[in-house]
Amino acid sequence: MTQLEDIAQKMVAPGKGILAADESSGTIKKRFDSINVESTEENRRDYRETLFRSSEAMKNYISGVILFDETIRQKAADGTPLVKLIEETGSIPGIKVDAGAKDLAGAPGEKVTEGLDGLRERLSEYYELGARFAKWRAVIDIGRSGDRSIPSAYCLNANAHALARYAALCQEANIVPIVEPEVLMDGDHDVDRCYEVTEAGLKALYAALFEQRVKLEGTILKPNMVVSGKLCDRQASVDEVAEKTLTCFASAVPAAVPGIVFLSGGQSDEEATAHLDAINKAKAASDGRHPWGISFSYGRALQAAPLKAWSGKSENRQAAQAAFSHRARMNGLAALGEWSEASEAEAA
Fold it and tell me: Are residues 320 and 49 in contact, defined by beta-carbon separation less than 8 angstroms?
């Protein structure tokens, strides 16, 4: 466990966070479509290599990188394995191992994440390829128009059980599991309903992790923030999001967990940064009542700007790296509770 605990602590090092570069083939195609670039293996490699060779961002603000199966096997244009590029910056390679959310039998409108079959063998291979942590995402929706039947306890418990089985297999393979129970922000629910569902999901998760004998000191939690649904008429303020998020997590996340790395969940770049900063400022003012390291594990909120700057052209590589370094630095400041709108403007 000592190695797992050490890696988990490095993943939430002060001022650093995790780059989620684990988009599935379908998701990365949508991202490339937005910039009119064909999603070929070479283009995907070139784009991700551009990010991994952003030395300022990678060395100073990125503690780990979540990779897709294709990416962990790829080599850079000069033949260097992409995993080695990541390791040379001092960042830790990780791997997405779930097979995606599928319809949950007997629960219309709800999902359960699959991918446990053959996972032990896949984790062994991924360890040999250089992965030292893994990620599994559960998807929890909230019913629309006040429908309180979604999520059901059945859905929460099924996903918690799968997350716990995955986490136990990871630790057996000497890989740190990131457990990601994402409550989606797509609906019209208010912030209090998000709080309620997030708390219930977290409590189900930690009960399942205990049952599966997972050592929490060698895990990382990747959750949603407690926010209003995108379609809700009243959007919670930044300070309200920070207060409710910390209160919710204090009630459900054990102190043994080394760190929480928030997902952005569809928030805009700056919105995700502002919320993370407010959470860390509130944590600093709480007299040690929130013991975990709190940082970020962003995909789109780190990549939207560099992807647009790159636009599939090699001559745009430096511009893309500058855009990536800017967003990584802003989130690094937010992870310390030291971000401000002024710092955003100064670095622009």
Answer: no
